[in-house]
Amino acid sequence: MPAEDRTIPIPNLAQARQKSSVAHQILVKLKEQGLEENFDDDLAKLCTDLGDLWGAQLSFTERLGDFLDTETAIDDSWHKFGDCLADICSELEHMAWHIQSVKGPIERIAQRAYQADDQNPYETRVV
Predict the structure, then answer these.
(1) Closest to 99 measured CA to CA, from 42, 35, 52
(2) What is the mean pLDDT of each run of 10 residues along the chain (127 residues)?
(3) Model-level pTM?
(4) 126: which DSSP letter?
(5) Number of C-alpha atoms within 13 angstroms, CB side, residue 23?
(6) String of b and e for 117-127 (b: at least 16 CB within 10 Å)?
(7) Quick check: 29 and 72 in contact, CB under 8 A?
(8) Residues 6+ apart with CB under 8 A from 35
(9) What is d(CA 115, CA 32) in angstroms, rounded to the nearest whole number?
(10) Distance CA 21, CA 98 (A)
(11) Which residues, including other chains, have CB under 8 Å from residue 23's CB and lie 6 or more apart?
């Protein structure tokens, strides 16, 4: 594809802000729950990956919608379908990377949560 035919994607600043907000909400929730500082590295990865996954699912839904909205034409329009499928594949690869990245941190923080309950089975929390 010639360079002059390529469009430069416009960043979705609203979605980026929402993604950051989701990541921050996760951070605040776990810190307010009392997650210790020795989990900060895992917490940083957890917040980043879950925030990015939240944003990626929005992008995936949009790309899938683009594919479904692509008009079927009798002429040589297969390239439109190919472009849409390539975009979907890119979103899936992005999601797969974050899913793999978050597995360790989410498992360790979940184990910490279960251990805390095992240590204090009768403790009630007053909010």
Answers:
(1) 52
(2) 65 88 97 96 98 95 91 74 93 97 98 84 53
(3) 0.79
(4) -
(5) 20
(6) eeeeeeeeeee
(7) no
(8) 43, 109, 112
(9) 17
(10) 17
(11) 47, 48, 50, 51, 52
